[in-house]
Amino acid sequence: MRILHTADWHLGDRIGSRGIDRTADLRKAVERIAEYCADERPDVLLVAGDLFSDKAQRQDDLGDAIKHLGDVFRPFFLRGGTILALTGNHDREATCQTLRSTLTLAAPRQPAFGDLVEPGRLYLAAGPTLLRLEDADGTQVQFILMPYPTPTRYLDDRGVVPATRDGRNATLQAAYATRLQQVMKHRSYNTALHTVLAAHIHVGGATVPSLFRMTAAQDVIFSEGDVPAGFAYVALGHIHRAQTIGGQSHVRYSGSIDRLDLGERDDEKSVSLVTIGPCGREGDPRLLPLDARPLYRVEITDPDAEIPRLRDRYPDHARALVSYRLVWTPGRHQREDIVNAIEDVFPHWYDRDVITAGTGAVAGCAAPTTDDPVQAVEEYLTDQLATDPDCDELLRLVAGLLEEVP
Q1: Looking at residue 24, what is its pLDDT?
Q2: What is the pLDDT of residue 370?
């Protein structure tokens, strides 16, 4: 069985205070994945969480995204391909339940826990799920799908959810680990089959671009030991940088399908192709590249010298997504003229800090993309310190202070 592993599509995403729509970029990546499905002939496309973005507010946007998926993957379904997806932290509960209800209308017979399911359709797991698939050669593979740990997915009404972030996340971590063990001890779990675990979680050994939203107070963090051994493949989502965990080639994050924020500006994007035969995993997974959009943070402190060189310095300036910081001097510069000159070079700028020299005053400061005050502080500092050599250390100190915020 050939499995194409991907994650963190964030369909409907936007970036920056201008709310730049990422639909075209993300659709291009999805279409490239569909081309890989045609060329590489996988049996399963496994999406390890965050199919949609929580920034997709309009029902029309979500409807268009779902229609695009149907159009792009229709050939894959018609030849018997199957999409397995699970919900992540950015997948809104209401959206996913609506999609699941629609899938139920299209296929009223719903499989029981651990069933051998029919190929040629999409299965979306909104809670811990166990199922089996069979390829054309008769090889069966077992899949455990574990969505991101939220109270509605993992806690029942009998427990009391702690009021503090760290207390709540510790409770969710324990509940998640318990549910995974329950799945593996369930009467329908077949220990004789090769098994794939798909999970949308943060494993502590992962390398992240910064500590943004990745402290124990802001996220549910698991140790490498919390991921049981013995799986043929572990398909992870949630961390946007492609990587293996613990030096194990078969335990990996696929990463996001495009650069979604400044922390990903240096990341190369890809999907992972793995083959599982009758004797288990056949070799190491193979990475298939995706063309990610350029994303920059540009600092301009000497407009007269730097603005004329921007096009040469950034050859992909017309396509790049850019957050810029400009320091200008009244009496020496006309503010609107130099701002217009910069934005003529970077038509897809998404945030800007325009600072009057000698005052530190900022005009057009980037607006936070969240209502969570702790997350907003981290977001602001991550952006402002992006080019500071002490960025990681400063963010680490701030993260320690923010852990005290209830």
Answers
A1: 95
A2: 47
Q: Which domain holds residue 312?
A: 295-402
Model pLDDT for residues 323-368, shown as the tens digit of each residue: 999 999 999 999 999 999 999 999 999 999 999 988 755 555 554 5
- Say yes or no: 133 and 232 in one domain: yes
Q: Which of 262, 290, 318 is the last residue of a domain?
A: 290
Q: Are residues 229 and 361 in the same domain?
A: no
Number of domains in the chain: 2
Residue 37: name the closest of 273, 206, 219 by CA: 273
pLDDT of residue 157: 61
pLDDT computed for residue 211 by the predictor: 37
Which residues of the chain are modeled with pLDDT < 50?
211-213, 367, 369-371, 406
Q: Which of 275, 290, 305 is the last residue of a domain?
A: 290
